[in-house]
Amino acid sequence: MKLLFPLALAVIFAILYFIPRTLIDRRIARQNEWRNRPNLQEYLEENPKCRTGRGVTCKYCGSYNIINRGMEVRHDSKRIHTCRTCSTNLYRTEFYE
Ligand SMILES: [Zn+2]
Q1: pLDDT: is 20 or 83 the higher one?
Q2: Are 63 and 15 a contacting pair, CB within 8 Å?
Q3: Which residues surround ligand 1, an ion (CB under 5 A)?
Q4: pLDDT at 50 over 70
Q5: Mean pLDDT on 65-79
Q6: How far apart are the C-alpha atoms of 83 and 2, rounded to whole Å?
Q7: What is the mean pLDDT of residues 33-57?
Q8: Centre of ligand 1 from the C-alpha of residue 57, in Å
Q9: Which one of 19, 35, 48, 89 is least enclosed by Cβ atoms within 10 Å?
Q10: What are the DSSP calls for 18-83, one per residue?
Q11: Taking 80 as the threshold, does the pLDDT of residue 28 lie above it?
């Protein structure tokens, strides 16, 4: 019974430390992923074949099926564009309000 209190304390500490730490690490990883992608102009300069009359294509598989998602939340002004065919993050955009 004497071990129960320190054990409970250790479990509470682990929860209070590791859950926020994991969330922070994921947020940093998403921010780094966004920053490491080229913007649309850089993407098209590096891959001129990806600019077509119909729109922008994936540089890996040539698909037109590209979705954009908010970096952190659904309506985030920082967008990352991902090919839906090969699931590769291609480029970033940012909207200013
Ligand atoms: Zn692709």
Answers
A1: 83
A2: no
A3: 58, 60-61, 63, 83, 85-86
A4: yes
A5: 93
A6: 56
A7: 96
A8: 8
A9: 48
A10: HHHHHHHHHHHHHHHHHHHS-BHHHHHHH-GGGEETTEE--TTT----EEEEESSSTT-SEEEEEE
A11: yes
The ranges assigned to domains in the chain are 4-94
Residue 33's pLDDT band, with cuts at 50, 70 and 90, is very high
The answer, yes or no, to whether residue 29 has pLDDT greater than 70, is yes
Q: Which two tokens stand for residue 76?
A: 């985030």
At 75, the amino acid letter reads H
Q: What is this structure's pTM?
A: 0.78
Q: Are 72 and 30 in contact (CB under 8 A)?
A: yes
Q: How many Å lie between the centroid of ligand 1 and the Cα of residue 13?
A: 43
Cβ pair 93, 39 in contact under 8 A: yes
Cα of 16 vs centre of ligand 1, distance in Å, is: 40
